[in-house]
């Protein structure tokens, strides 16, 4: 499903070039549950952003579902991402002026889905994260755990085969964090390919496959 071959990612910082990823090779099979761990600045988020098509490598190739997506246009990448990949962020990234239901609905609107179909899908998504009673609440009226549940519902509303989560419990207390991990693992059990970046070793070790990255290189 996911194949990275000799991926490099360089950033220009002033007059210096900083290498965030250095020749990364990685294959992830459909339905796997993978955690990515490593110290701060090791390249974890850069790796996930490239897999999510939110960033492009400086060199190397990325094959997704048998197609090379390394040098696609922004519009093509947006379409591929919308149809194949869900992304959950540490800081939720919900739109403050929209309700929970409207935040979940946004990807459907961008995809041109009919209004009645959107309403049905949003109601189903809210039910799956046990937040039907919070549909009309705005983000500032929700707890951290509820915000992340809404973010997960939004990430999954297009039924992507891949779900990427960057420190999804980083802003949550331990109880809410474990509820989020349980929800993500439930999605994986339903067949979704799950990759989680985490600093929490207890969370990382729950994955069926664990990757450690140091200085832009996969250590094991």
Layout of strands and helices, then pairs:
Elements: E1 2-13, E2 16-28, E3 33-37, H1 44-51, E4 59-64, E5 67-68, H2 74-84, E6 85-88, H3 100-110, H4 115-128, H5 144-156, E7 162-166, H6 174-189, E8 193-197, H7 201-204, E9 209-214, E10 217-218
Parallel strand pairs: 3-8, 3-9, 6-7, 7-8
Antiparallel strand pairs: 1-2, 1-4, 4-5, 9-10
Helix pairs in contact: 3-4, 3-5, 4-5, 5-6
Folded structure, characterized:
The protein has 220 residues and is an alpha/beta fold. The protein has one domain (34-46, 74-218): 3-Layer(aba) Sandwich (Rossmann fold). The chain contains seven helices and ten strands. It has helices at 44-51, 74-84, 100-110, 115-128, 144-156, 174-189, 201-204; strands at residues 2-13, 16-28, 33-37, 59-64, 67-68, 85-88, 162-166, 193-197, 209-214, 217-218. It has a six-stranded mixed sheet, with helices on both faces. A four-stranded antiparallel sheet has the order 2-1-4-5, with helices on one face. Strand 7 (162-166), helix 6 and strand 8 (193-197) form a beta-alpha-beta unit. Helix 3 packs across helix 4 and helix 3 (100-110) runs parallel beside helix 5 (144-156). The chain is globular. The two termini are 20 Å apart.
């Amino acid at each position: 499903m996911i194949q990275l071959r000799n991926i490099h990612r360089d950033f220009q910082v002033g007059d210096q070039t900083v290498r965030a990823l250095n020749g990364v090779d990685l294959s992830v099979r459909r339905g796997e549950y993978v955690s990515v761990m490593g110290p701060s600045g090791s390249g974890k988020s850069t790796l996930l952003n490239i897999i999510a098509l939110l960033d492009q490598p400086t060199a190397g190739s990325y094959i997704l579902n048998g197609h090379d997506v390394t040098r696609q246009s922004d519009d093509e990448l947006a379409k591929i991402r919308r149809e194949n990949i869900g992304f959950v962020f540490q800081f939720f990234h919900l739109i403050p002026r929209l309700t929970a239901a409207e935040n979940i609905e946004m990807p459907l609107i961008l995809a041109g889905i009919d209004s009645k179909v959107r309403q049905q899908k949003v109601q189903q998504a809210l039910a799956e994260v046990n937040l039907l009673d919070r549909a009309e609440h705005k983000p500032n009226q929700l707890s951290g755990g509820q915000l992340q549940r809404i973010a997960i519902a939004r990430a999954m509303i297009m039924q992507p085969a891949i779900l990427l989560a960057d420190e999804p419990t980083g802003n949550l207390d331990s109880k809410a964090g474990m509820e989020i991990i349980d929800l993500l693992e439930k999605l994986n059990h339903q067949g979704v390919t799950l990759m989680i970046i985490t600093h929490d070793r207890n969370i990382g070790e729950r994955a069926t496959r664990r990757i450690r990255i140091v200085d832009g290189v996969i250590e094991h």
